[in-house]
Amino acid sequence: xxxxxxxxxIEIHFFLFKDLNPKENYGMVYIRTNQIEQLYQRFIDDKxxxxxxxxxxxxxxxxxxxxxxxxxxxxxTFG
Length: 79
What we know:
Blueprint: E1 2-7, E2 10-15, E3 28-31, H1 36-45, E4 57-58, E5 64-69, E6 75-78
Parallel strand pairs: 3-6
Antiparallel strand pairs: 1-2, 4-5, 5-6
């Protein structure tokens, strides 16, 4: 009921939430990286759909970010 995934210097933890309805889910994960431009380009090259409102841009608070939706409609924002 608990999953950890690691690639290079990134580690993500997941837990079971039995009552969650994925179609009504509004969850979000924020993932920090020091190579945002390279990661964005890799997603583009790999044809990973970027969220329509989540193109790579510098936000008013100064953070450069982009977003995608995972298969369960979780918003994954990279910054």
